[in-house]
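User: Last request for today: this protein with iron/sulfur cluster, please.
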Amino acid sequence: MTTSRSLSPELYLQANSENDLKLMHIMREQDQAAVPTDRSFPTVTLLVGPTPFTMPRGWEFFLTSPYEGVTYISTVLHNAGYPVRIVDVRYAVDPMAEALRQILTGTDVLGVATFEDNFPFIRELIDAVKTARPEMPVICGGSLVTSVPEVFMQFTRTDIGVISEGELTILELMESYRLGNWRKGLSKIHGIYYRAGDGSLCKTPPRGQMTTLDFLPRMRLDLWPQAQDPRGLQPQIIASYSRGCKMDCGFCFRTTPQVSYKSSEKLATELAWLKSQYNTNFVFFTDLTFNSSKQRTLDICQVIEDHDLRWTCLTKCANVDPEQMTAMKKAGCDIALFGVESLGAKALQGVRKPPPRTSACGRCTTVSRPGSVSAPC
Ligand code: B12
Ligand code: SF4
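Assistant: Here's the final one, the structure of the complex with iron/sulfur cluster:
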């Protein structure tokens, strides 16, 4: 089996430069004491486009639930004093017309969340924005631009592509923009693709991933338009306590491939915040592998149990055991999802997965029984 990485080697670096650490500390301080919104700062509009994704039964809350990535980007900007607006056209009758109507009024900088399935929409939207307002900077981030940056930049009129984790990069980018330094300063901001004055595509050194998620702010879900709706925010949310995965399977794209965690204390603070501010009663934990380490899983379950929540998560069958499943059930987990790609050793080897130690499906069924957690394979 090959030992090289499955994704671009640049995604496996760490954000640990002096500058990264400074930004991480600023982010944490501004979580504790947010800078009051300064109307003289540029207004950032973040766009969430429509998706043809068909929700499986029971996942309907995903249709309108705040996306975690956009929540973090909007939160760090808000905490740094920028006026931020999220334009979410997932369920607009005419998403393109609605997005343009909202973006073209009161936006100084447009940020777009990119996913592979909404590429045609994003491309058309950015084209329309750049035609109507050529001077408006368009910054794209998220999984699509991260996985195929050159292609994405070539086929869209995006000014800046932010690669992988976006919190530190967007803070640095917006400060540079606010101070009028982009012309000379973009080449010094790590983790981006941008266009030089002559239109050629440039790339800066990679940013790398934060090694701990404890510097992240508490999520400000009230920045989403749903919070202004008379029906209010849903009590079900998408959240995570980790990023990345210990494995490196050949077919699996991860925007943040390396594993990083929130501490138990950080998770406890966040769950308390989400419950008290937004009445959250259900969390879909979208950690790629909720149970990547046994002791951590047990610790996290203890934290969740203290907050009286119902929840669902994505788990790795090879890691589960009755003790974990019992702890998960006790902490309010009602569905644990297992990824089973193949039961064939050869097929697994082909995608850089270890051979099955036991029949994966059998294992899921057996271990889920003691805790009575529903475990669809
Ligand atoms: C939860 C989830 C879903 C949910 C919610 C979707 C969502 N958009 O959040 C649902 C079930 C709806 C879903 C559907 C799909 N998903 Co999905 N999903 C995930 C999952 C498990 C977690 C996403 C998440 O919240 N991550 C945590 C946050 C913090 O990270 P993030 O979203 O990457 O955001 C960070 C950066 O990307 C960046 N960033 C993000 N947006 C922006 C915007 C700006 C302006 C900037 C500057 C930065 C920035 O900064 C953020 C903070 O660091 C990921 C796997 C993963 N762990 O990332 C797959 C993943 C994103 N999904 C994937 C896919 C393929 C899909 C579907 C296309 C599936 C399908 N076949 O239909 C659809 C697309 C729907 C859509 N348009 O979103 C792929 C994307 C691959 C790619 N190269 O684009 C992933 C990476 C899984 C995988 N390994 O294949 N998904
Ligand atoms: S174990 Fe799952 S999440 Fe991790 S790399 Fe493999 S397929 Fe992706």
